[in-house]
Amino acid sequence: MKHKNKKYLIIFLIFLLLVVFYYYLSTLNFEVLNPKGTIALQEKHLIYIAVGLSLFVVIPVYVLLISFAYKYRASNKNADYKPNWDKNGLLETIWWVIPSILIAILGYFTWTYSHTLDPFKPISSGDPSNNLKIEVISLDWRWLFIYPNQKIATINYFKMPVNTNVSFYITSDAPMNSFWIPQLAGQIYSMPGMNTELHLSSFQVGVYRGLSANLSGVGFSSMNFNADVVTTSEFNNWVSQIKSLNATNLTYQEFQKIAKPTVDSKILNFSKADPSIYAKLIDSYMSPVEKNNTNQSPIQNMVM
Fold it and tell me: Is the pLDDT of residue 15 over 80?
């Protein structure tokens, strides 16, 4: 009777520990589990599917581990000795077939979501004429955002309208970095001389944290920015306000000055930005042979 009471006590304590752990997790704000964008929402679903399928294997394994450790402990003299399990066809079928089925299901979802959430794949919903294009350049150690159609630019923050498909074209004029807004989409690398893309939209107004997700030197920890999602009218008013400022014009020569290594989280606005800066930067990493093989930069054809 004492052994049974002890067994029930252990089960109760494990259950209580799980409840406390779940309550603790619910008090935390995990940004990837609190999505505010269509892409991040689908990524959350994939995380839940992967974790749920994994638990079908993990939970039975730990239950068996605890049960075996308890039943066959040294102090239990009544444990049955059963040495003939090594050729049990039923058990071998269970521990091979069930995990194989789960891996196949997980592979299906991984394959499907990998194509659905391809960062280079534009979002097809909504009016294409309302799409917004933003060119992102990671520097040492700041983020530059250029709006080529609006001909403005910002440093260390950007605004975008809610319910609008936004196409980011991302490169670097510094060591490889990673652009990430956890509540809106997954991370995407920025690399010198290369163009990567990320397409996203947000369904809720708010200010969301953006960050560098790749170690890049002494100023890495300060490479944070705010993604400010506002209404369409507020975005248009903001663009008009930036254009009316007597701010510094962002020419390619001025860009080369601000691209110098700087640990500075200060926000800057540029009322006039040269829309060809992004293409010129990538062209600067091309070899003379590559430049001579085309009359126009390949990146200009891609992002214009």
Answer: no
